[in-house]
Design goal:
Elements lengths: L2 H71 L2 H10 L9 E7 L2 E6 L4 H17 L7 E8 L2 E11 L2 E8 L4 H5 L5 E6 L10 E7 L8 E7 L2 H48 L17 H30 L3 E5 L5 E4 L1 H7 L3 H4 L4 H4 L5 H12 L5 E7 L5 E11 L5 E10 L1 H15 L9 H14 L2 E10 L1 H8 L1 H17 L6 E6 L2 E7 L3 H16 L3 E3 L2 E3 L2 E10 L5 H18 L4 E3 L5 H7 L1 H13 L3 E10 L7 E10 L5 E2 L5 H6 L3 H18 L7 E7 L9 H12 L6 E6 H6 L1 H13 L3 E7 L7 H5 L4 E4 L11 H16 L3 E4 L5 H10 L3 E2 L8 E2 L5 H4 L7
Length: 860
């Protein structure tokens, strides 16, 4: 409904009824007030009439008392005189005087009305029967005498005698008592008041007979109040008409000042075409509010057209094809990229279904219907192939299009050409899964397919193959030549295998091979054949010929307990063992082999060592080094390392030292041992003068960056004498890192430390190294000491080492001394110190004391 009609409805349906209702209520209210005023006036008139009657009765009673006294005092002669004189008095015209004595009535001054006088004896006899007899009380009241109202009073004058005075009122009591003009009459209430015509009220006055009240009816004229009501209705009608006229004028004023300008504004808005390229601003008049409204509308229109233009420019500028549809999956808009993609203009494509535009079946339409019906808020992203002359792969993104009320009114479909991306992904996937040099599967593909092989096989052999001398080809001939050799080796190995085996390049010069459902003998035969074919491969480069060898590690697994990844680790460990055996060797993994088990658990132990260092869980043990020559002042012992498990078990070093060396953790381990050893010595200053503690330095720590500085800082921090410390280095590591070892040893010797060369003789070292290494002690390897008492060759070797060292001023220490016979031989040779279970077993360093170190020695 338009606003003009709403205002008309408001005026006719609300304002005018409200005026009528108010006028009617005002009339009712005024009538009520008039009625209240009339009732009040009636009550006042009744009260006034009542008061006049009461005054007349009181006066008559008083007059009766006045005349009764002299009447009593007079004798018969006096009473006769009074009777003769009464008619001449003015009172005789309105009053009558009677004497009642012993029931006899005597008219002293009778009434002028004869009829009244005739009936008076009956009234007086009635009064006499009720009259007072003893005391001079006055009784006064009204009584009716033949329809005439009388005021009568009686007073006792003697026993059985009293005087009665009667005043006969005129027949028209209205002239006497009706003071107001609207009192129409006062009569005896012969009929009920409610049945009388006009307005009447009953007035009860004191009666003289039997004490019963006398009822008079007072009638009032209703004309004055009726005139007032008539005047009020006219005024109400005039006010009502005046109100309607004012409302009508207000409506025309609103129509001119508000409705017409508003209607004009609405017509301008109706002529605005949202789809037009431009718009005409609306103009408003008739009030500041309409002008502001027009300005706001123009602002919204400008924003809407600007937003539409911006959206249009955006849709036209993006590289994706954009397709807008309605709820029936029919196209309503195509941006230029979509037009070029489909080969249709926007006008030509409008109304066509999405399935027709995409040259697809109706499933796409069903997908759109389901997507719109579900009201999804997140876009639906899929891929699709667009059948064209050159097929394209498109990334399809579908989103619901909603109106301002949140209702789905269509969809927005974005199509992005990802053909090149998909081709590139396939190429990258192939490069990730296949080695570009050999064409074999990569490590990632090998591990993925290994699980499939394991699930289908009754038994499986996982082989780890590592080329030998391949680095020589890369270093001398370059990586291109190395790639050619890899391709040749891969082709040769692939030629030895059937389609049931899986060969892959794991990285560098390492290959992986999976053989299923073959016995160990068959696997060994196949690997030997494969190894022979690899050895036959010859690379010619710049007139030179190069060959490679092959080390193979094999791990077996049987269903149903096949763990493919664990088998690959075991094969890797077996390959390391094969390399140790020599060139072109094959080694089968054996879980009972401790060395292989240590290698297999090396990563786990490396993590455990790091945690032990971080959590301060490394434990220091000591083992005595017994002096075999009397008069030695210093007592010696070697610091040994242990790790304690949470269960309390103490782990020997054989289980974690190899892992620490493999993963380059020994420098951190050595630093922790040095710190703890220095700390223990700092707490036991009583051992400084006569003790020397031997601490092992691993090959990784020799020449390690910052190791010398660390030792020097710890020495200053704990303030211990450097003469208490002897560092032990193994012969093998000293030779392998000779230059770095020499530099480090010389720097530490300047700080006052001493040195021992450990495991001497096991590495076939030349005695010439003893001249270059600044060592103070040589520890003869235990392999020559264990059989010293029974093996003449070992005896000769130990004696020769001792003799050379004595000439060079170096003291000797024999390791693995386990019995007295070995001690005797060492005494005969002249070895300076002995160490082993025969001297003392390793014990916790914290338990060390001077008493315990000499408890029950073998030499005793």
């Amino acid at each position: 409904m338009r606003i003009g009609k709403k205002i008309i409805v408001f005026i006719t349906g609300f304002c005018i009824p409200a005026l009528v209702l108010v006028s009617y209520c005002l009339g009712i209210w005024f009538d009520h007030k008039v009625e209240q005023f009339r009732e009040h006036s009636i009550e006042r008139q009744l009260t006034s009439i009542q008061a006049q009657f009461d005054r007349d009765i009181a006066r008559l009673a008083f007059f009766t008392q006045v005349y009764a006294v002299p009447f009593v005092q007079l004798d018969n002669l006096g009473r006769a005189e009074l009777q003769r004189a009464w008619p001449d008095s003015k009172l005789s015209a309105s009053l009558s005087l009677y004497v009642v004595s012993s029931g006899r009535v005597r008219a002293l001054m009778p009434m002028a009305d004869a009829d009244s006088n005739a009936t008076l004896p009956l009234i007086l006899s009635t009064l006499a029967a009720a009259a007072p007899t003893a005391k001079p009380d006055v009784q006064a009241g009204l009584l009716m005498l033949r329809g005439r109202v009388c005021i009568a009073a009686l007073t006792a004058t003697a026993k059985d005698e009293y005087v009665v005075v009667v005043r006969l009122l005129p027949q028209d009591l209205t002239r006497l008592y009706g003071q107001s003009q609207w009192v129409s009459g006062i009569i005896q209430a012969a009929i009920p008041a409610e049945s009388a015509k006009g307005i009447s009220r009953t007035l009860q006055l004191p009666g003289l007979l039997n004490g019963a009240p006398l009822q008079l009816e007072v009638r009032f004229s209703g004309l004055p109040f009726a005139q007032v009501k008539l005047g009020l209705d006219f005024v109400t009608l005039v006010i009502l008409l005046l109100g309607i006229a004012i409302v009508t004028l207000g409506y025309f004023w609103l129509k001119k000042g508000l409705l017409s300008p508003f209607k004009d504004l609405m017509q301008q808005l109706d002529h605005i075409d949202p789809a037009a390229k431009d718009y005409t601003p609306v103009v408003a008049s008739g009030g500041a509010e309409l002008v502001i409204l027009a300005d706001r509308v123009n602002t919204l229109l400008a924003g809407s057209f600007q937003h539409r233009e911006r959206a249009k420019i955006t849709l036209e500028s993006i590289s994706d094809a954009v397709l807008l549809t309605d709820v029936w999956a029919r196209a309503v808009y195509l941006n230029p990229q979509a037009e070029r993609l489909f080969g249709l203009s926007c006008a030509e494509a409008t109304g066509a279904t999405v399935a027709a535009l995409l040259r697809s079946d109706d499933k796409i339409n069903e997908t759109l219907f389901a997507f719109m019906h579900g009201g999804a808020t997140e876009p639906l992203q899929t891929k699709m192939k667009l059948p064209m002359a050159v097929p394209r792969v498109m990334a399809r993104n579908i989103s619901n299009l909603r109106n301002h009320q949140g209702q789905v009114i269509g969809t927005v479909i974005l199509l992005r050409d990802i053909t090149q991306e998909e081709v590139l992904k396939q190429q990258l996937r192939r490069r990730a899964n296949f080695d570009p040099i050999t064409g074999l599967p990569s490590r990632m593909a090998f591990e993925a397919r290994l699980a499939d092989f394991s699930a289908k096989a009754g038994n499986i052999a996982v082989c780890y193959l590592d080329l030998e001398q391949f680095k020589l080809i890369n270093d001398n001939c370059g990586h291109n030549a190395g790639d050619r050799m890899l391709a040749m080796v891969a082709k040769a190995m692939q030629a030895c295998l059937s389609r049931h085996e899986l060969l892959a390049r794991l990285g560098g010069d390492e290959f992986g091979l999976v053989i299923i459902n073959r016995s160990a003998l068959e696997v060994a035969q196949l690997l030997k054949h494969l190894l022979s074919q690899v050895v036959l491969q010859v690379l010619q480069d710049k007139g030179r010929h190069y060959k490679v060898g092959l080390s193979i590690g094999v791990a077996f697994g049987r269903a149903p307990q096949i763990r493919a990844n664990e088998l690959l680790k075991d094969a890797d460990i077996a390959c390391i063992a094969a390399k140790r055996k020599g060139s072109n060797q094959i080694h089968f993994y054996d879980a009972k082999d401790k060395d292989l088990a240590y290698q297999r658990n090396a990563p786990k132990w490396a993590i455990r060592i790091s945690q032990a260092i971080q959590n301060n869980e490394l434990l220091l043990y000591y083992q005595r080094i017994e002096s075999l020559m009397p008069g030695r002042a210093r007592k010696r012992m070697e610091i040994l390392l242990r790790i304690q498990e949470p269960s309390g078990q103490i782990l020997p070093p054989a289980q974690f030292i190899a892992a620490a060396e493999r993963f380059k953790l020994m420098p951190e381990v050595d630093k922790e041992v040095i710190r703890k050893s220095f700390q223990w010595l700092s707490r036991h200053s009583e051992f400084w003068d006569d003790h020397c503690v031997s601490i092992n330095l691993s090959g990784n720590s020799l020449g390690a960056e910052g190791m010398v500085e660390y030792i020097a800082n710890q020495l200053r921090l704990f303030a211990i004498p450097s003469a208490c410390i002897c560092f032990e280095i193994t012969e093998t590591t000293a030779i392998q890192n000779q230059q770095r070892a020499l530099e480090m040893l010389h720097r530490l010797r300047k700080l006052g430390f001493s040195f021992a060369l450990d495991d001497f003789g096991s590495g076939f070292a030349s005695y010439g190294y003893l001249r270059e290494l600044p060592v103070d002690y040589v520890k003869i390897d235990g392999c020559f000491v264990r059989q010293l008492a029974s093996n003449a060759k070992d005896y000769a070797i130990v004696k020769s080492i001792h003799d050379v060292c004595r000439v060079m001023g170096i003291e000797t220490v024999a390791e693995f001394v386990e019995n007295q016979a070995i001690l005797d031989k060492l005494h005969s040779i002249g070895v300076d110190y002995a160490q082993g279970y025969g001297i003392g077993r390793p014990k916790p360093l914290e338990s060390y004391s001077l008493e315990s170190i000499y408890a029950a020695p073998l030499s005793a």
